[in-house]
């Protein structure tokens, strides 16, 4: 599954009528790096940090991202992530 953290779109309110695009690679990689454990999480954090545009992620990596986003990120980020996941299946 492909996700683009370099050109990440975030809804600017609950309606989702307006979106803002930004580079969230470092901030989301840091969420993973600082809150997850294990070698796989370490690899995923650096994979996101070093990514360029649309990048392929495994089902396991995406599942780990969703769990961590739901625990540590804003609802806007969670919705932006889930939209990319749904749009790129």
What report would you give on this structure?
The protein has helices spanning 25-35, 39-49, 59-72, 75-87, and strands at 2-4, 8-11, 19-22, 54-56. It has 89 residues and is an alpha+beta fold. It has one domain. A two-stranded antiparallel ribbon has the order 1-4. Strands 2-3 form a two-stranded antiparallel ribbon. Strand 2 (8-11) and strand 3 (19-22) form a beta hairpin. Helix 1 (25-35) runs antiparallel to helix 2, helix 1 crosses helix 3 and helix 3 (59-72) packs antiparallel against helix 4 (75-87). The protein is globular, with a radius of gyration of 12 Å. The model has no long low-confidence stretch (mean pLDDT 96).
Notable characteristics:
single chain; 89 residues; alpha+beta; two-stranded antiparallel sheet; 4 helices
List the helices and strands and how they pair.
Blueprint: E1 2-4, E2 8-11, E3 19-22, H1 25-35, H2 39-49, E4 54-56, H3 59-72, H4 75-87
Antiparallel strand pairs: 1-4, 2-3
Helix pairs in contact: 1-2, 1-3, 3-4
Q: How would you briefly describe this protein structure?
A:
The protein has 89 residues and is of the alpha+beta class. The protein has helices at 25-35, 39-49, 59-72, 75-87, and strands spanning 2-4, 8-11, 19-22, 54-56. It has one domain.
Biggest pleated-sheet summary: 2 strands, antiparallel
**What do the pLDDT scores average to?**
96
Tally of distinct domains: 1
Spatial sequence of strands, sheet with the most strands: 1-4
Termini Cα gap = 6 Å
Q: Could you name the ranges where pLDDT drops below 50 across 5 or more consecutive residues?
A: none
Order of helices and strands: EEEHHEHH
